[in-house]
Amino acid sequence: MEMIPRMASMELFGCHVEGYGCRQRSHMEYGLICQELGRCDSGLRAMFSVQNSLVMFPVFKFGSAEQCGKWLPKMARGEAVGCFGLSEPDFGSNPAGMITSARRKGGHYVLNGQKMWITNGTIADMAVIWAKLDGEIRGFIVETSRPGFRATLIQRKFSYRTSPTAFIDLKDCEIPQGNMLPGAGGIKSVFQCLNHARYGVACGALGSSIACYQAARDFAVKRQVFDRPVASYQLIQDQLARMLVEITKAQLVSFHLGRMLDDHQAKPPQISLAKLNNVREALKIARLARDITGARGILADHHIIRHLCDLEALSTLEGTAGMHTLILGQDITGIAAFH
Fold first, then answer.
1. 122-125: long-range pairs with CB below 8 Å, 24+
2. Could you report the per-residue pLDDT of 33-46, keeping only the tens digit for each?
3. 172 φψ region: left (φ > 0), alpha (ψ -120 to 50), beta (else)
4. What is the H or E stretch that residue 149 is in?
5. Is 136 noted as a catalytic residue in this protein?
6. Residue 262: CB partners within 8 Å, gap ≥ 6?
7. Which of 12, 121, 189, 307 measures 20 to 30 Å from 54, CA to CA?
8. Residues 139-185 pLDDT 10s
9. What CA–CA distance (Å, rounded) separates 217 from 229?
10. Mean pLDDT for the stretch of residues 94-117
11. Across the chain, which distance is largest between two alpha carbons, in Å?
12. Sign of torsion, CA 212 215 218 221?
């Protein structure tokens, strides 16, 4: 919470928003910010991504002028935090199957359902909740102070320990009719938000891999084994070279994708490719870094084990490795293999 005002002072909130006190940035800039935040901590990068891609973007893209004017300036200043309520206890990879519902009641909507694995859930002032209204997925702004909204911190996590991840319970939560995002309709609206966020995850994973590589390299140069630096051994140099090659390839994928997004040329399968590749290779790099640092690799001192645990979460969130593989498979063959 101490970091949020400092991030706001650096104009890090509102990257996808034009106006409303926000500094709109290119996708390339957004990706580089995610890389650097990921190099520090994945939970910090997640807070940034959710606030930008999954809350401020849908409000700006799908919201009314009144909704934008109410929320976006406060979020840009770090005075309000948002969360994104999509995943449910029984529906993660298949968000279209959600059972959270909204029904009309006079001039209000009444929401019922549950959301799971919600980043920023317990610190949020508002939530963008996705629910089915008359069978169609719609987006709603729900102030977290409303009766019927309850967010519970998910405990006992070994990944994303800095991130307040929540379980959200909606029980007859009544919101004004004006809280529905008028421009959001169907699963396509959801995926427009996720496309921004998945690019951020790909870049954040790259940052984690850079941090692990740097820690392993610094350790190997200083650590003496048999009166020689660990870095002087061929096996260690092979591992460091492999790490650097994969980091460079991931950078090229990320930077090229950022340019394509800026030129409105990127397709969702290309975003899936970047997310799948960067997280998968980052996990390999983190494990190699842990191996190079030996027993010290499990200590908090070098941060490698923290990044490794966080990357295990990254391999699942914003689409599992398996789901992104199938997205690519469908794009290659024209045949969907999800069922």
1. 122/151, 122/152, 122/153, 122/164, 122/166, 123/1, 123/81, 123/164, 124/81, 124/82, 124/83, 124/151, 125/80, 125/81, 125/82
2. 999 999 999 999 99
3. left
4. strand 149-153
5. no
6. 26, 27, 28
7. 307
8. 999 999 999 999 999 999 999 999 999 999 999 999 999 999 999 99
9. 11
10. 94
11. 79
12. negative
User: How many Å apart are CA 92 and CA 122, to the nearest integer?
Assistant: 20
Angle at 281 between CA 280 and CA 286, to 5 degrees: 105
Helices (H), 135-267: 187-222, 234-262
Of 170, 166, 120, 119, nearest to 317 by C-alpha is 119
Q: In degrees to the nearest 10, what's the CA dihedral of 298, 304, 307, 309? A: -20
> Phi and psi of 308, rounded to 5°?
-65, -45
Cα gap 37→48, rounded to integer Å: 8
First to last CA, the chain: 42
Mean pLDDT of 98-122: 96
**Which is catalytic among the residues 88, 246, 281, 318?**
318
Place of tokens 């926000």: 22
- pLDDT tens digits along 1-27: 899 999 999 999 999 999 999 999 999
3-class state of residue 319 by DSSP? coil
pLDDT at 93: 82
pLDDT in tens, 247-283: 999 999 999 999 999 999 999 999 999 999 999 999 9
Residues 285 and 244: their CA atoms lie apart, in Å, by 9
pLDDT at residue 94 in the model: 84
Residue 57 has pLDDT above 90, yes or no: yes
**Encoded tokens for 212:** 């692990």
Q: Which two tokens stand for residue 104?
A: 């009309």
